[in-house]
Amino acid sequence: MQTDIYYRDITRTENLEAYLLEKVEASIEDFFKYDSAAHLTVRVETTRHRTHARKPSYTCEVVLKPTHTKGVIKIAKSDDSFKRAVMQTVDSLKSVLRRRSSKKAMHRRHDPMLNYFPTEEESQLMAENQAGW
After folding, report:
1. What are phi and psi of 75, to 5 degrees?
2. What does the alpha-carbon distance between residue 57 and residue 45 come to, in Å, rounded to a whole number?
3. Which of 40, 50, 71, 114 is the most exposed place for a label (fewest CB within 10 A)?
4. Confidence class of residue 49 from pLDDT cuts 50, 70 and 90?
């Protein structure tokens, strides 16, 4: 999977990049295990700078482009804490991927009675009933 990280008004460090990769890639790892051509873009920025009277505000945005579907998943969350903004984005991404995955599973659901195979006793009873008609 190709992953791009963009920073705006935030100093890039190796620890910050490792943290972002660990959190975001770990959340989508199970869903895109076999889609090696998927494209993941993570954007982090400071939307409101620190002053004497206020705290800074951070925004984390994730854009996921899978290859097997045409839809693009885009999630953006803001918070006063950088880590909380990242965790809220990751949690939202997980829930969106779970919903899409369960919809796909329900779409291909089969009737459980089609897989029903009678036991020997049941098949003998059915044969006797058909012979008695």
Report:
1. -135, 135
2. 9
3. 114
4. confident
Quick: pLDDT tens for 82-102: 899 999 999 999 998 888 776
Give me 48's structure tokens: 């409101």
Q: Which two tokens stand for residue 123?
A: 């098949």
pTM over 0.90: no
The upper half-sphere exposure of residue 51, i.e. CA atoms within 13 Å in the direction of its Cβ, equals 4
Quote the CA–CA distance of 21 and 42 in Å, as a whole number. Answer: 9
Is residue 28 a contact partner of residue 75, using CB atoms and an 8 Å limit? Answer: no
Beta bridge partners of 43: 6, 61
Four-residue CA torsion sign, 122, 128, 130, 132: negative
